[in-house]
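hey can u check if this looks right to u? its 293 residues, i copy pasted from the old doc so theres a chance i mangled smth
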Amino acid sequence: MGIPEKPWPTGLSEQAEPLVRRVLAPNPSPYTYTGTQTYIVGAESDVAVIDPGPDEAAHLDALMAAIGDAKVAAIMCTHTHRDHSPAAAPLAKLTGAPIIGCAPLILEVDGPRSDESFDTTYAPDRVLEDGEQMTGTGWTLTAIHTPGHTSNHLCFALEESGALFTGDHVMGWSTSVVVPPDGNMGDYMASLDRLYARADDGKDRVYYAAHGAPIEKPRQLVRGMIGHRRQRENQIVRLLAEEPRSIEDLVPAMYKGLDPRLTGAAGMSVKAHLLDLESRGMATSSGDIWQTI
């Protein structure tokens, strides 16, 4: 899906539903769509801020204007990529609110930096375990552990309305990128299965992702995403059955008409699928060359 034509509602406070407003950050890109959407949950007395976004003065000013006189009960992050959590610390300084949500994550590996897209400044006051809740006046947010896109990824369920804040785990405009070594395709698929079961039980009415429009038919979308990932896996298995190949060979064979700026991300997703196949005894590698077993 292409990025829509401007104007975008950057910096504006938009009412999504009675307990939910969103403010779009000024950080559009091929990876963030029109930018990161920060959500403000609650009414006039106290609110939670979900995914405060990048540490940019214009975005912080827009958030403070949207918050107004309300008390910020919590600043909550779904994960710690740099388009999601860097504004947490300055917003906490401005409001006195605690940072509550996902765990910090800094990878320590040799070779090219695998944590270069992670926010190393993120320091939560409280890490939410799966099922733990944060409450305010008229609102309750429950943490749903959804590893895969990152190992520390959380979604937040607004119990009063059936809304689920999905961060980057599920988005309507694009599939989520899974980048090893922290991103894990097996975990991602298990998390999709978990969200599908929730939607199938009627727990989640709408998804609010960090990028893109609200998802009004979450069960249908998640079912399609699971099918899409299985198709990608089958595609890899079929191509490797023809002959052993490298990731560089697989990407152009799998992604026709891909934006060249997204070639690296596609390669990482292919690698995540290959590592998952390897963990299940279905593929193996010798150097850069992969083959089926």
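The chain has six helices and 14 strands.
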